[in-house]
Every structure is written in structure tokens, then in C-alpha cells.
Write a structure and sequence with these properties.
The chain has one domain: Hypothetical Protein Ychn, Chain: A (3-Layer(aba) Sandwich). By secondary structure, the chain is of the alpha/beta class. Helices cover 37% and strands 23% of the residues. α1 links the parallel β1 and β2. The chain has 4 helices and 5 strands.
Length: 108
């Protein structure tokens, strides 16, 4: 039976290796075919997507998540130039709780 894991990304500071490590961990979870991965970029974490061309680590992890069919959700509330190769969905803040509530496991 497939389990749904939601990785919530909220804190981002340019050059922060912890943020990149959270993304790397989410990529590692995509290897297990019994897991459905959802990555939520909320609040300050949205700024990482603005700087995706400046950070090769973040770009690599986000592109890999997209390639491995993880669902990427970005909380509405800003404009971000996300490369077209990355599939994502903008969601209103009211949808965040629903996505987290459906998950079997939430990692923050």
C-alpha cells in the first residue's frame, strides 16, 4: 500500500545547507516506489525558488524531485521565476492544511 509523505519546507536563508539537506532527503524518499512524495514550499521557503538559478544544489534537488514525479506545491503570495522544467502547483494558504492532513507522514 502506497504511503503519502509530505515534506514541509518553511525556513530558508540564502546559503543555508540545512534547507538543501531537507530537499536532498526528499529526493532520497522518491526512490521507494511505495511512497508518494509531496514537497510544500511555504512562507520564506518560496524565496529558494526565486534563487534557483543561483544555487546549483537547490536547483539540482528541485529538478530531481520534479523528474521523480514528486508533487511540488508552492504557497501563493509572490511571483517566482521557476524554470519550466519543474512541474509545480500554486496553492492558496487554505489548501495547505488539507494536503498535510491527507499525508500518512509529515516531515518538517
Amino acid at each position: 500500500m502506497e504511503k503519502e509523505i509530505c515534506v514541509v519546507l518553511t525556513d530558508y536563508t540564502k546559503g543555508d545547507s540545512l534547507f538543501s539537506e531537507k530537499l536532498r532527503m526528499a529526493v532520497g524518499l522518491t526512490i521507494n516506489d511505495d511512497l508518494s512524495i509531496k514537497a510544500l514550499f511555504l512562507g520564506n521557503a518560496r524565496h529558494a525558488l526565486e534563487e534557483i538559478d543561483e544555487s546549483t544544489e537547490i536547483k539540482k534537488h528541485v529538478e530531481t524531485l520534479s523528474m521523480m514525479h514528486a508533487e511540488i506545491f508552492v504557497e501563493e503570495g509572490g511571483e517566482y521565476s521557476i524554470p519550466p522544467s519543474i512541474k509545480y502547483k500554486n496553492i492558496p494558504p487554505s489548501e495547505v492544511g488539507k494536503i498535510i492532513g491527507k499525508a500518512d507522514i509529515v516531515i518538517h
